[in-house]
Amino acid sequence: MTFEVHAQGAVHVFDCFACAIHRMAPICEHCRCQIIGQGVEADGRWYCGAHCARSDGRVGIVDRV
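Structure tokens predicted for Metallothionein:
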């Protein structure tokens, strides 16, 4: 069985969640890891956490615990 993910005007077809996550997860702009969970967005860029956002020059970003 397959399922579809509709995102940004495109349709993606997958047969497992692991493949969908691998294909659809954003990449951290600083450390280049895939963001599989909570990430932060600053100025239209995605980061895995506040540390990477600040390391990339973004200000005012903090982690919430």
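The longest strand covers residues 3-7.
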